[in-house]
Amino acid sequence: MKIEKNKIVFGSVLALILIFIISYSVLVMGDGDDESETLEQTEVPELKQDQKEYKSKLDAVNALKEVRETNAPSIYDEKLIDSLGFYDPDLREKEKERIVDSIYNSGRINYTENRYRNSEAEKANYSEVIADTSFILNKENKIANKEIGLEHQLFFSSNPLKNTAAITALKTEESIYAKVDGEQVVMVNSRLRMRLIKEAEIDGVAIKKNTLIYGFIRFQPNRAIIEMENINQHPVKLKAYDLQDGSEGIYVENSFRADATREVIGDVVDDINIAGVPQVGGIKKIFQRNNKNIKVTITNNYKLILKQAN
């Protein structure tokens, strides 16, 4: 049985191949016969409907139906749409103004006199007027020259007052609020670092908030005096006042005798000259050494008021 099935399959495949070769050769040979035929007349497709005949060309033209574009109606008035296709409600007024301006610029109408302008006649009249009044203009020029010369003489001979109004004093705020920037230990001539609490105007210059300010220390009895001479490379003259008591400087408790902490004690002792008291020089040295060795601790965020020095 197996042998018979194989033979059947082989025979069917061979038969299909032969059928394909025969059909392909028939198609190829058939195309060659069509090409040999020559075209004697162009074929025209048959019309399903009979064509209507007209007696004249005019009737045929009139019978043509005009095909119009069906556009949706515009929501705007077409008279108010400019050449660029934009809607302008004032288009008519602008068009009128344009026409009036063009007429006015061309010089054809005098609006004040309600008549047409004759440019040539006006030029002639204007030239005549200039010719007739030339001597008047010469006189006026001479008078004007004399007046100018007189004004020059009066100017150089006068003694004008100084323009004091132009010299305005630079504005400085009455009270400028600052605080000590960090806890600091200071001595005589030490530098104290401070910071502005809010923006201020000093000598006409606006100083921003949190700007660093540096002052120099000197001592008086129970007070540390702070003076400022420069802020951001800008020379100033300011003194610091205690926000708590309103007095100049910061209140401090001196560790040594209060009468020995004043900075000018050295100059006072220089004036002392008592015969038979040789120990005065030693007292002077003690006072000077004590004044220089005073140290004061100023706490962080200590509030101060800066005012202009007199």
From TrEMBL:
Residue ranges annotated for the Conjugative transposon TraM C-terminal domain, each copy included: 176-307
InterPro entries found in the cross-reference section: TraM_C
Recorded superkingdom: Bacteria
Pfam families in the record: Transposon_TraM (PF12508)
Protein name from the UniProt record: Conjugative transposon protein TraM
Source species: Gillisia hiemivivida
Gene behind this protein: traM
